[in-house]
Design goal:
The longest helix has 33 residues. The protein is built from 23 helices and seven strands. With 569 residues, it is mainly α.
Length: 569
């Protein structure tokens, strides 16, 4: 029989960057040219998107470009995916905005650096595999919630509203402020945003190969400048922006500050890990390749620490830009490095042009991003799937929108886990050819056998368990065992179809075996897998206390031999 156990991977197998792998495979001039073209294509997409995400996050647009340059370079150079493109992500907008609103930009820098350290630790501890166990309804729920938050956060610039105070990050506080500011809407900003959205939709439908976002940003900026439209621009709101990248370092760090920022840091690390590995999986599906998840998390951690030190915001793998990279024909991580270098060239040479970009146009770009991010079909499908899945979905969605992302993911995972345990417990079955008592009669002096009056041979009774025997199913199995009447001479328990036994399940079996022992019954366990046998052994459920047989036939033969030897009638 061929073993399905995979050989233990070495450190080099797990943590060698894909860039090294690609270069070792042979990398020539044609590959370099192809990756350069793919990198330019992705940079054209990332340019307006990085600025828009930074603005929506409560930061300046140059910080979005710095994040894409520093983070994008390191993720491609050190990561475990051939095609991953790193940068600021729309999923981070509500989290970053709330962190800046509560703790200031300095607080975000410290939280981002801490999150980077956490991701490096998670990667080196090889825990990246566990991120894939987040339930699908949770992923769809918090993604849809993030999309709603992004969409609502663009209302101010889409309508050109004038707010008397900074826009709150929390949804419940944000909506009343926006409602009160509605009378101040700017018709020019609304028209420019509406035309930009229409142009983005049209280009996506009829010319999907063109860089629609960049075209719309350039055209919208030109129209606002030539027509002297009274709309707010990057320059009018943010003033002069940085035109390069430099080391900024960490602001004052203290133990009290670390305690204060530990929750947002964990949230940034969690979301960054989820988003990056989802993006890597998408790239694998498009190319047939396979990423190294733990190596990718280490790269994400290093990139976040570097982004924080250079004055950026959180960075992660981005699904849309990674997919664009694959479709552009990228051969490997060099394309991602080129993407970062092209963005650096723009920031250094033409960074001053950012001042002319209308915020209404960038809001239109993010409105489209939010619409595309919301997995509408999947959301509707999960609502119809089952009440349990709908509950998990809505909990993750509503908590993300009205509380925060950490609560949405945390509660969603807990509810999803409870739902899974309930379903696994329901799948646990206890079967026997001997019928159970029809009624549970308490305090009976002489309990009648379960098949009393049916003329069956009570010397040997066989029960079969099927399904994972864990704490969620223990109560069900225990209630069945408690209803067994007169104990037989030999009790055979067939666990061939039990793939997993936890300590609660093993304790339940030990309690039942102890009860049978006091009644003089010998127990034979059939078909226990190695993992199940080891769990039983921890509770002294092993020979000679009982008999272990490799299958049911062997168990039956052992039971009959014991009866013949003891002379039980």
């Amino acid at each position: 029989m061929t073993s399905l156990t995979q050989p233990q991977a070495s450190f080099a197998d797990l943590f060698t960057p894909k860039l090294v792998t690609v270069l070792k495979e042979g990398y020539g001039g044609r590959d370099l040219r192809t990756d350069a073209v793919a990198g330019l294509t992705v940079a054209i997409v990332a340019l307006p998107l990085s600025m828009a995400i930074a603005i929506a996050s409560g930061a300046t647009p140059d910080k979005g470009l710095i994040t894409a340059i520093v983070g994008g370079f390191l993720i491609s150079a050190l990561g475990g995916s051939r095609f991953q493109i790193g940068g600021p992500a729309g999923a981070f907008i509500p989290l970053v905005a709330s962190t800046i609103a509560i703790h200031g930009y300095d607080g975000l820098v410290i939280a981002t650096f801490m999150a980077g350290m956490m991701l490096v630790a998670v990667g080196f501890l090889r825990l990246g595999t566990y991120i894939k166990y987040i339930p699908y309804p949770v992923t769809v729920g918090f993604t849809a919630g993030i999309a709603v938050i992004i969409g609502v956060s663009q209302i101010r610039d889409l309508l050109g509203l004038r707010l008397g105070a900074p826009e709150p990050a929390e949804m419940l506080h944000k909506l009343p402020v926006l409602w009160q500011a509605l009378p101040s809407f700017n018709p020019a900003a609304l028209a420019l945003a509406g035309l930009s959205i229409a142009a983005l939709v049209a280009l996506k439908r009829w010319r999907p190969t063109l860089p629609g976002m960049l075209i719309v940003v350039v055209a919208g900026s030109g129209a606002a400048l030539l027509l002297s439209l009274p709309v707010e621009t990057i320059g009018s709101r943010f003033g002069t922006l940085a035109s390069g990248i430099g080391y900024q370092g960490l602001p004052g760090v203290s133990l009290a500050r670390i305690r204060e920022l530990i929750v947002p840091a964990i949230a940034i690390a969690m979301l960054g890990g989820i988003e990056s590995l989802l993006s890597a999986v998408v790239a694998d599906g498009m190319t047939g390749r396979r990423h190294r998840s733990n190596c990718e998390l280490v790269a994400q951690g290093v990139a976040n620490m570097a982004s924080a030190l250079c004055g950026g915001i959180p960075v992660t793998g981005t699904i849309a830009r990674t997919a664009t990279n694959v479709r552009a024909g990228a051969r490997g991580p060099v394309a991602g490095i080129f993407h970062a270098l092209f963005l650096l060239a723009f920031l250094s040479v033409a960074g001053g042009l950012m001042a002319y970009v209308p915020l209404a146009v960038l809001a239109a770009v993010l409105a489209i991003v939010a619409w595309n991010m919301a997995e509408k079909r999947e959301f509707a499908s999960l609502l119809r799937a089952s009440p349990g899945d709908a509950l998990v979905l809505l909990a993750a969605f509503l908590l993300t929108v009205f509380v925060d992302l950490t609560a949405g993911i945390g509660v969603g995972i807990v509810l999803g886990s409870l739902l899974f345990m309930h379903r696994m417990a329901e799948a646990m079955a206890v079967e026997s050819k001997v019928r159970l008592l029809d009624e549970d009669i308490a305090d009976r002096d002489a309990p009648a056998p379960a098949d009393a009056g049916r003329g069956r041979d009570r010397r040997i009774v066989t029960y079969r368990l099927s399904g994972a025997f864990f704490f969620g199913a223990a109560a069900t199995v225990a209630s069945v065992f408690d209803r067994i009447g007169q104990p037989p001479a030999v009790f055979i328990l067939d666990v061939t179809d039990v793939p997993f036994l936890d300590t609660t399940g093993a304790y339940t079996l030990e309690t039942f075996v102890h009860k049978l022992e006091r009644a003089g019954t010998h127990v034979v366990i059939a078909g226990a897998r190695n993992s199940v046998a080891n769990a039983l052994a921890h509770f002294d459920l092993k020979e000679p206390r009982l008999t272990l047989a490799r299958n049911l036939d062997a168990a039956t033969a052992a039971a009959e031999a014991r009866l013949a030897f003891s002379g039980v009638p």
